Amino acid sequence: MSGHSKWSTIKRAKGAADAKRGQLFTKLAREISVAARSGQADPEFNFRLRLAVDRARSANMPKDNIERAIQRAAGEGSGDNFDEVYYEAYGPGGTAVMIQAMTDNRNRTVGEVRAALTRAGCSLGESGSVGWMFDRVGLIELEPNGADPDEIALVAIDAGASDVQIDDGTVEVFTEVEDLHRVQEALVGSKYQVASAQLTMRPKTLLAPEPEVAVKTIRLVEKLEDLDDVQEVYTNLDVTEEALAQAVG
Length: 249
Fold this sequence. Notes:
Elements: H1 4-14, H2 16-19, H3 21-37, H4 47-58, H5 63-73, E1 83-90, E2 96-103, H6 106-119, E3 123-124, E4 134-142, H7 149-159, E5 163-167, E6 170-175, H8 180-189, E7 194-203, H9 211-225, E8 230-235, H10 241-248
């Protein structure tokens, strides 16, 4: 994709965030629980959990919901245990699609994912079929709010960022996984407003098909993201301005 900001533009234009807030909170709670079970149930000592909690707070998830999700993972409450799984698929026009899910029933989840792909004329791939097209990286998004994006980029690079992109007024800072926290702290320390910080899958190369194919891929991503068990969907689609206009039109 040409940048997370393009996908954000599509979602904002459709008003999807408020309409699906309940589903979002459910997914954020799963993310917190899985992160808490992957290490200590304390955000201070578990960076992945800290990212999940920060993301939940950014979405205005109630504090009690966040604490309950952590407590369930620590065995202090009842609830299902969710496994993190990845599915790989070929989307419209041969686009690569990585699907991150958190589920308590793998058979149900793979069935729902396969059905969504089949309806779009696409199919699941074998493990490793498209995963090699992506790198696991850190991503920090900032709104300049009057600051010079080039100055933001310099601070990020000095702190260890591997790449910086400026797109649609949003600054996207990419890091190695282990450098994400350090770069984030440097940006915050320089008084820049960090909109989000997360781990993501970044495509090594982008695919720019015809706008009609790009829109079909966008629709597929939306259908997959609508599934309760799916947390994130990553693709190597380059969202051009023409495709963006058709997708939000």
